[in-house]
Amino acid sequence: MNQLTDHADEQIAALTAERADMIAEQQAALSGLTAERDAARRGATDLVRRAMVAAHHSTGKPPRPWWAHVANLFAIGSTRAQELCALHGFDPDELI
Known about the structure:
Elements: H1 2-59, H2 66-74, H3 78-87
Helix pairs in contact: 1-2, 2-3
């Protein structure tokens, strides 16, 4: 009986180690993908910011909320423009 339980314990230990290795690999892959996503998001935010500032400076119009500039710049509605502002860290209602 002791030999049987020892064998079972060895199998459990082997499976546990194998599973731990798989989890470590998945975590490493996820970490890499997360870093890529964050870099892409930062790049998109910078691009949106530059486009919005350029559009604002080129209009010469009185101050308007960020969302209005975004709506004009990207030819989208006010709701989507407000969402885009918020997504990229802008206060949609801030007048610029």
